[in-house]
Amino acid sequence: MKTGDPVELAARNLRESVLRNSLTTVGISVGVASLVAMLSLGIGLQHLAASRLAKSGLFDSIYVTSGRRMQGPNGRRENRKGPPPPLDEPARAKMAQLTGVAEAYPDIRFPAELRTSSNTEPAPAPQSGNNKGAPASGEAGNSREYQLISGLPMSARQLESFDNLKGKYFSAPDAPEIILQTDEAKSLSDKPDELIGKQIILRYASRRLMQDDDANAKAASQYGAASELSVYAVTPNEAKLTVVGVVESKADAGIRGAGSAGAYIPVDLALKLAPMQATQVRLAGDRDPLANSYMAVIVRANRSSQVENIENQIKQLGYNTFSLLDATRNLRKFFAILDLFLGIFGSLALAVACLGIINTLVMSILERRREIGIMKAIGASDGDVQKLFFAEAGAMGIFGGSLGVLLGWIMGRIINAGTRIYMQRQQQFTPDDVWLVPLWLVFGAIGFSIVVSLLAGLYPAARAARLDPVQALRYD
Amino acid sequence: MTNPNPKAGADIRALNLTRTYRMGDSDIRAVNDVAFSIASGEFVALLGTSGSGKSSLLNLIAGLDTPTSGSVAVGGRDLARMSREELARYRRSTVGMVFQSFNLVPAMTVLENVELPMRFAEVPREQRIERARRSLERVGLAHRFNHRPSELSGGEQQRASLARSLVNAPSLLLADEPTGNLDSRTGSEIMDLIHTINKEGTTVLMVTHERPLAERYASRFIFLRDGKLVEDPSEVPA
């Protein structure tokens, strides 16, 4: 028999016992729907966790610090011989060019004071002398206590911290713009949202190496410094910045540090301001205290799977690194196991549906015993009869699989809608889909249903093929 | 009425042909050491009482059953040595079968029933419909193409069965009591058709217990009693 003939005859036979075959097909579809439901829940949860973690910046980032023998964030002391390489702009550029690196930017955090330029209240007394290049305005403003300001790259827009950003993100990496956390914004104005678009003043301490050798030597002598090269000035400075956005205050900082500051400015602007960072104090004793111009560099990988390789390359360059790689590995392992178990539970219903197929086909053989005998008498081979029953099992698999995927998809939509409503009512959660049916699962489930149906059809088909035509023709 | 694909009739040679069935603890010899030959184009009637082994012998010649011992050769090929696949090929290319109970597939229309053997013979679809129509027209069922067997009379069902048996242009037509379920007039019509087919060169072996019918159409008789050939026809009840 040619390929199309068993299919055509199978379709005819399925139509003949429409109720029984429909019930069997519905059984398969419930099995497939259960499988799709379980797997898409697993996939959805994995996707949700992965996207949340990716947004937290925890799992694709490497925190790079100088290769000094100091205790790093991971609590380990690095033992390395010889002087450590400087962690400066050339080093950052070198890291940015490593394979798999999306970007590398300095981690800049510094304390500063924020005040609105329009406020008429008197400013507190300045803490040090005015900077020559950018004199303090002297304009009265609503002063605040010192807050931590963080420099962020343009890519940080994707971080979870900015999910509920009011206003907009920075327009350029060095734009004179600032984004405030809600708490900071509230202390500056009763109506924080109205600050967006207005200018505020950032007052901070900037550092500067003394250029004049004589003055250096004099200062070194006066203050008992180790050498004239370690003399640098810390001066107050001000910058006028436009508030472009306000974000919810969040505690989750992550490696990329979006949550730990009270306000954010573009990272290139932060570099231009040359602020004195609190952590730079530990470098003060160096012969050249500004040589290690960055306290830390944050390296972001294109994919979390590349983190280990990049981390090793950076270590070879002589720097200390820290990442949460092990945590992602365990997370992936957890989801692999979760998917496996969900798949097994989902398959149970499909296994029961298989018994339904076997039962339907065996019953069909009994009913059509004489028909099989007739077909053999007029020239059907064992293979032809086998193909016919295989085609029937396969057809039930295709219809059942397609219907099952559709059922699973509808169930998923309903659960997603329910979850969204629940999460919205909880208010502190961002509504998200916990159910995800990727395209591969659609085709995979239909394919799996066909394969399983064909396997279920193996025994009935072989039994039909083996029928003795003489006995079958006698059957009434 | 002419055969669209005439083939030379097949000759049949049976030698020491035996078929034993196991019934409980005893062996029943349905066909017992039978030897005969039928020439190409002959019309032979196989006569015998009920249970004499006629149908068992016909099943062996049709390739539906295999002998316990001995051989049966059709067109020079020994069926006892053929595999199941070869026997299936033999049944669809060499043999046409007509049954007492018609054996049409009830879920199919008359046209689809006649088309069915051509599906197994892998005849292209466009040829199948045309050949099935011609075969049905040949037996006078041109107006019944799309009817189901249950909508036909007994005579029409047997005509459809005959059309199906001829559609692959067999060289051997095996008829098992073809008029057994028909009234005498309809039976005669069917026998006339079979006779015409024989005249066109197809070898016909017909099982019957109606001796007058056999005498009217067959050129030779083979008598069976208790699975054995009987030389003297008087030993077989008429």
Supply Rg of chain B.
17 Å
Number of domains of chain B: 1
CATH topology of chain B: Rossmann fold
Q: Which regions of chain A have little confidence, pLDDT < 50, spanning 5+ residues? A: 119-141
Give the SSE layout.
The complex is a heterodimer of chains A (476) and B (238).
Chain A: H1 4-16, H2 18-56, E1 61-65, H3 89-96, E2 101-106, E3 109-116, E4 147-152, E5 166-167, E6 177-181, H4 182-188, E7 199-209, H5 213-223, E8 232-247, E9 263-266, H6 267-273, E10 296-301, H7 307-316, E11 320-322, H8 325-367, H9 369-377, H10 382-426, H11 439-466, H12 469-474
Parallel strand pairs in A: 4-9, 6-8
Antiparallel strand pairs in A: 1-10, 1-11, 2-10, 3-4, 3-7, 5-8, 6-9, 7-8
Helix pairs in contact in A: 1-10, 2-8, 2-10, 2-11, 8-9, 8-11, 10-11
Chain B: E1 12-23, E2 26-38, E3 43-48, H1 54-62, E4 69-74, E5 77-78, H2 84-93, E6 95-98, H3 110-120, H4 125-138, H5 154-166, E7 172-176, H6 184-199, E8 203-208, H7 211-217, E9 220-225, E10 228-230
Parallel strand pairs in B: 3-8, 3-9, 6-7, 7-8
Antiparallel strand pairs in B: 1-2, 1-4, 4-5, 9-10
Helix pairs in contact in B: 3-4, 3-5, 4-5, 5-6
Tell me what the structure shows.
The complex is a heterodimer of chains A (476) and B (238). Chain A has two domains: 4-54 and 331-474, no CATH class; 108-293, no CATH class. Helix content of chain A is 47%, strand content 15%. Chain A is built from twelve helices and eleven strands. Chain A has helices at 4-16, 18-56, 89-96, 182-188, 213-223, 267-273, 307-316, 325-367, 369-377, 382-426, 439-466, 469-474; strands at residues 61-65, 101-106, 109-116, 147-152, 166-167, 177-181, 199-209, 232-247, 263-266, 296-301, 320-322. The longest helix of chain A has 45 residues, at 382-426. Chain A starts with a helix and ends with a helix. Chain B has a single domain (41-63, 85-233), classed as Rossmann fold (3-Layer(aba) Sandwich). Helices cover 34% and strands 26% of the residues of chain B. A six-stranded mixed sheet of chain B has the order 6-7-8-3-9-10, sandwiched between helices. Chain B starts with 11 loop residues before the first strand and ends in an 8-residue tail after the last strand. The A-B interface holds A 1-2, 4-5, 9, 12-13, 16, 370-371, 373-384, 469-470, 473 and B 59, 62, 64-65, 84-85, 88-89, 91-93, 97, 99, 103-105, 107-108, 116-117, 119-122, 125, 164-165, 168.
